[in-house]
Design goal:
heterodimer, A: alpha+beta, two-stranded antiparallel sheet, disordered C terminus, B: disordered N terminus
Chain lengths: 212, 481
């Protein structure tokens, strides 16, 4: 290869074509996606995330939760996502349009969280998991204040037992960051079935033709 | 395309002072040794993070009381120190040196390289501090907080001036494969980094378009930046250490352009089954398979290293095998049937480590072992440390990749069975991950040996030279090799 300028043009073209194709192409297809208005419910889905949940997603990002958790459900029959109760349908692009920082994740050391809020987990238990951890889950004690009770015990204080319990006269109170993170996790709910999410269940080989 | 570099002299065996040191090497040694030294230092730091992170995988409460050591941040720190610290510094040093040598002129603008390298490392340091205090982005291989990116771009520009001048002012009309790859890396990263910054951080695109863009960026960092730097090192050294013309060199341009045009499309394989347009994934699967031709060409060209001797040759050999294997595994796991099991498991981590550590890092090690004696005009301070580093790092990478692969496979089988809980999976992979963190310890130790050896080498040569106030030997002449 002797032609220097041609090499430069070639390199630039290689980069630009892939950028235009992948980034601009996807943006053209999905960048202007709108919520889906359901006439029966008189509601548009997905619903906007609350402010505290958006803050919680920032906590989720800065702690790098996505290094062990995914937030995407694969279609029924592809993997065991449905059987594990992570969601009845595959995740679609519309689920994420209101998320400032969608984090699909790439490793499942822990469970998928795309529909965590839909399973109605107990917020107090989630707080305890974050504070104490478990055999497989680290604790995030730095998201909590272990402080002396002044006057009345805080409404937010965790009910802890055993070795995790604070000293008498002390209480463990989640910081604003912990509360935001929990609000975010509880807000994760992609259970509404959009038209594009319907062609699911490949095992449904009954006489009834599949809905498109 | 027939003008492959023909160099008759193979690398002298043993630890002799290399015979082909030129004024070119001595003139450029300050900035290049700075790049290499900081690269090795970052590699050790990254190894420390990797060790902590790997322990946390089987013992989740390890150091979890410190927010800056929480597992998610440790992973980002390890990744960033490895890619932007180690690979970038080492790769740039090798790329610049190759462009200078093959261009046939003294490297110009070396002061810019020095300043650029300093600021790049300030940028990496600030970026790591930023990640540790919670400013990381949500994009893998691009976790640096956005406030350090402008300074790093400018620093990168300063470093690459020298390489671009060497490329533009080259004495031969044609260019060798090592030069294309080195130049491609220098030229493409700033564009890639700017394009990614704009759509991800400054004016983020919406919803999953962000994930697709981040995926493109991560693939670009690999295909358009890290791999070209590594292959520049491998192509240059393959001719040097074997003393032979590269076989089937006429295919080398095809291999190069395949990497540039097809490689950047392969990222979507990580999004299989995800909420992204299906064509992204299909294109990626096709591209991953087409890219096998690139790997075949590289293997065909660089196969000559199998007959060569010396430290550089053995690193390139290992790197070549790992690189080609990595490509084959990429293609294999890109098939949806396989991905159903391997996706979201440590198998993907194993393949990534195979490519990053086994592939390109080994090629950089080869470059470093070849470069340092020439830059310092001396020999490595300790032959024992060099051999120790080589054996332990190779053994460590093999154990690392195998254990991650085995753990990932177990995890994949378990994940497919909805009755197996995460606690069970944890128990099943625990022992393998324990061995994996042993491998991380080995790697850390090995790279410490390299760091010590490097520091001793430059103290015994460069510092002595500087004290003697004779940075340029008069009896050397500028020769093109």
């Amino acid at each position: 290869m002797k032609n220097g300028p041609l090499i430069v043009i070639g390199l630039f073209a290689g980069l630009t074509i892939s950028w235009a194709g992948i980034v601009l192409g996807t943006n053209a297809q999905l960048g202007a996606q709108t919520p889906y208005y359901d006439d029966t419910d008189s509601l548009a889905y997905p619903q906007r995330t609350s402010g505290i949940a958006v803050q919680g997603q920032m906590v989720y990002t800065d702690l790098g939760c996505a290094s062990c958790h995914t937030e995407q459900v694969r279609r029924p029959g592809f993997g065991s996502d449905q059987d594990r109760g992570w969601g009845d349908r595959q995740s679609v692009a519309r689920d994420y349009i209101f998320q400032p920082r969608p984090q699909l994740g790439s490793l499942r050391v822990g469970r998928d969280l795309a529909n965590y809020g839909a399973s109605k987990p107990d917020p107090a238990q989630l707080m305890r998991l974050l504070y104490v951890g478990s055999v497989t889950h680290p604790s995030f004690k730095f998201l909590f204040d272990n402080r002396q009770i002044v006057g009345q015990r805080s409404d937010y204080a965790l009910d802890l037992e055993g070795s995790a319990a604070p000293r008498p006269g002390y209480e463990v109170v989640p910081t604003a960051r912990a509360r935001a993170l929990v609000a975010y996790l509880l807000s994760l709910n992609n259970s509404y079935a959009y038209p594009e999410a319907r062609p699911a269940a490949p095992e449904a080989k009954t006489s009834e033709p599949q809905k498109k | 395309m027939t003008n492959a570099p023909t160099i008759a002299r193979a690398e002298p065996p043993g630890q002799a002072v290399p015979a082909d040191v030129t004024a070119m090497d001595l003139a450029a040694r300050g900035p290049l040794l700075l790049l290499i030294g900081s690269g090795i230092a970052w590699l050790v730091i990254s190894g420390l993070f990797a060790l902590i992170g790997s322990i946390q995988l089987y013992s989740p409460h390890f150091l979890d009381e410190y927010s800056f050591l929480t597992h998610g941040r440790i992973e980002a720190l390890r990744d960033t120190a490895f890619v932007y610290g180690w690979a970038a510094n080492a790769g740039l040093a090798v790329a610049l040196w190759i462009l200078g040598r093959l261009g046939g002129n003294l490297l110009r603008a070396t002061n810019w390289v020095f300043a650029g390298a300093s600021f790049w490392n300030v940028g990496v340091t600030a970026g790591l501090v930023g990640i540790a205090i919670g400013d990381m982005t949500s994009f893998s291989l691009f976790e640096l907080p956005r406030y350090v990116l402008p300074i790093m771009l400018v620093a990168y520009g300063a470093i690459s001036i020298s390489g671009v001048l060497a490329w533009a002012g080259r004495r031969t009309e044609g260019a060798f494969a090592a030069q294309w790859y080195a130049f491609a890396a220098l030229f493409l990263f700033p564009w890639l980094c700017s394009a990614a910054q704009v759509v991800l951080l400054w004016s983020p695109v919406r919803g999953v378009v962000q994930n697709v863009a981040a995926n493109w960026c991560a693939q670009g960092v690999w295909s358009l930046w890290l791999v070209p730097m590594a292959l520049a090192s491998a192509y240059y050294l393959a001719t040097k250490v074997s003393g032979r013309v590269l076989p089937h060199y006429e295919f080398a341009p095809l291999g190069f352009w395949l990497l540039i045009f097809v490689g950047s499309w392969t990222g979507g394989r990580h999004l299989i089954g995800g909420p992204v347009p299906a064509w992204i994934i299909t294109m990626a699967v096709v591209a991953t398979v087409v890219l096998l031709a690139h790997y075949a060409i590289v293997a065909l060209n660089l196969g000559v290293v199998f007959g060569a001797r010396g430290a550089a040759a053995s690193f390139i050999r290992f790197g070549l095998i790992a690189y080609v294997l990595g490509g084959a595994f990429d293609a294999l796991t890109a098939f949806r049937g396989v991905a159903e099991e391997t996706q979201f498991t440590f198998v993907t981590v194993a393949i990534e480590q195979l490519a990053l550590y086994g592939g390109i890092s080994m090629m950089f090690f080869g470059g470093i072992y070849y470069l340092v004696p020439r830059l310092t005009n001396g020999r490595w301070a300790s032959a024992g440390l060099a051999i120790g580093h080589r054996l332990v790092v190779m053994f460590g990478v093999i154990v690392l990749v195998v254990t991650l692969g085995v753990a990932g496979w177990t995890q994949g089988v378990d994940l497919l069975d909805p009755k197996t809980s995460f606690t069970d999976i944890f128990e099943h992979v625990r022992l393998t991950l324990l061995i994996m963190s042993g491998a991380q310890l080995l790697l850390l130790g090995a790279n410490l040996l390299l760091l010590v050896n490097f520091l001793q080498t430059i103290t015994s040569t460069v510092v002595t030279d500087v004290v003697a106030m004779s940075p340029l030997r008069e009896d050397t002449e500028v020769t093109v090799s």
